[in-house]
Amino acid sequence: MTGLPAEHGEAPVNMRLMPSEVTAIQQATQQASQSLITALIAAGKYNWQAFGAQDGVGPAPSQGNCAAFMRSYCAPAMQSRPMTMQMTAGSNQTVAAFLIARPPQAWLGWGWESDQRNWLPIFDLDVGTPTALCAEGPAGVFTRTWTKGTAQLDCNAWTATLDF
After folding, report:
1. 99 within some domain
2. What is the pLDDT of residue 57?
């Protein structure tokens, strides 16, 4: 994504490129990438390369920041922004947080190089489509209903319920 020599460290030396030429190639690569991402977004699409800090993405909530995290990510305005969430192996709290807060373009996993070795059976959970946005009540307890059930995350007790 950043351009030469990100994947081929020796390429500039092997190709006898001047530093200014490497910079020009990097800038052209980044401009082309941004043009493609802009076109994808205009077409109502998205891809993993477009996720980034400018989108407000971050790790999954922890027990210590759960309520603040969920209040932030449950804000209706967040539904127009893409989201990635780092999966914590075997963590129902992470899955619940993801299902409760996720916007239409969202991804849960370990990184773009994830593969079947990291697959968890919970990823096969069929939740349907959301019927409402996130709701908080009582304080610190977040829920979201889907056509096939409900996800709940109790930040006070640090427990998750996935009734699907």
Report:
1. yes
2. 46
